[in-house]
Amino acid sequence: MNHKRLVGTVFLLLTLAACSKPTIDTSTDETMKASIEKVKNSLSDDKKEKFDEAMKIVAFSNVDFKDLFAGGALAANGLEGKMKQSLQGKTADDIIAQAESIKQERAAKEKEQALSEIKELIAKQAKAEQAKSELAKFRIERSRFYKQQQAFMGSQPIIEISVTNGTSHPISRAYFKGVLSSPGRSVPWIKDDFNYEIPGGLEVGEKATWHLSPNMFSDWGKAKTPADAVFTVEVEQLDGANKESLFSVKDFTEDDAKRLAELKKKYGQ
C-alpha cells in the first residue's frame, strides 16, 4: 500500500467513524425522544452533563418568549419547528459545538451592550461632576432640623436653612438632600430629599432663610431628634428662572455609581 493510498484509507476510516456517531432524528416526537436518549447514552458521564446543558442552549436559542405568549398556538407550533430544525441530524459534538458558538455570540453582544452602557454612565458621571462645582456656589450657610410643638396636632417637623445664591443665575427651585445623624452612629436618623419652590425666586447674590414644614406624618415627622444630632444639607439640583434644570447631580445616582463600578470591574475598563 503506497503512502497516498494509506492516507486515503485513514481518512475514509475517520469519516466512517464520524458518520457512525448517533444523531438526533426529529421527524416525530417519538423518534426525537429515542434518538436523543441514544446520543446521550453513547457519551461518557462528563460529556453527558455538557450535552444536557448544550441541548437546552441550542433548543431555546431561537425562542422568543414574548412572541410565544403573544402569538398563541400558531407561534408555539412555529417555535417548535425551529427547535426541531436546530437539532435535526446533529451529533453530540455538533450540539456541544453549536452551544459554545451561541454562548460566545451572546457574550459578545452582552459585552457590546455593557461597553455602550459604560460610556453612557461615564458621560452622566462627568456631567454630574461638572454640576457639583456649580451647585457648590449655592451655599448652605446654616441648617437645622427640629420639631415644634403644636397646640392640637402634635409636633411639626421644621427644616431651617439659610442660603446664598452664589451662582450666576436666578434660581426658582432648589432640591436638597438632608441627613440627620448622631456622632458614632453608622445609620442616620433620617436621610431624605426635599425641595423648595422659591416665591419670587432667588436672584444672583441674594440670601434667604427658609423655615420649611414637611408633612408631620412623613419620615421627617417620625425621625428622632436627639440632642447630639447634626443636620447637614447638600444641594442636588437648581432650576433657573424658566423652571428648567440648570445643574443637577440627581441624574447620576448611587445605583448608577455602583452599576458603573460593577461593569468596569467585569469588563476590565
The amount of helix comes to 40-55%
The pLDDT mean sits at: 87
What are the low-pLDDT stretches, counting only 5+ consecutive residues below 50? none
- Give the overall shape: elongated
Biggest pleated sheet: 4 strands, antiparallel
Strand order of the largest sheet: 4-3-6-7
Structural class call reads alpha+beta
Residue share in β-strands: 15-25%
What is the N-to-C order of secondary-structure elements (H for helix, E for strand)? HHHHHEEEEEHEEH
Rg is 33 Å
Describe this protein's structure.
This protein is an alpha+beta fold and 269 residues long. 48% of the residues lie in helices and 25% in strands. The chain is built from seven helices and seven strands; from the N terminus they run H-H-H-H-H-E-E-E-E-E-H-E-E-H. The chain has helices spanning 3-19, 29-41, 45-59, 65-87, 92-135, 219-222, 254-267; strands at residues 138-149, 155-165, 171-181, 190-202, 207-212, 230-239, 245-248. It has a four-stranded antiparallel sheet. Strands 1-2-5 form a three-stranded antiparallel sheet, with no helix packed on it. A hairpin with an 8-residue loop joins strand 3 (171-181) and strand 4. Helix 3 (45-59) packs across helix 5 (92-135) and helix 5 (92-135) packs across helix 7. The radius of gyration is 33 Å and the shape is elongated. The mean pLDDT is 87.
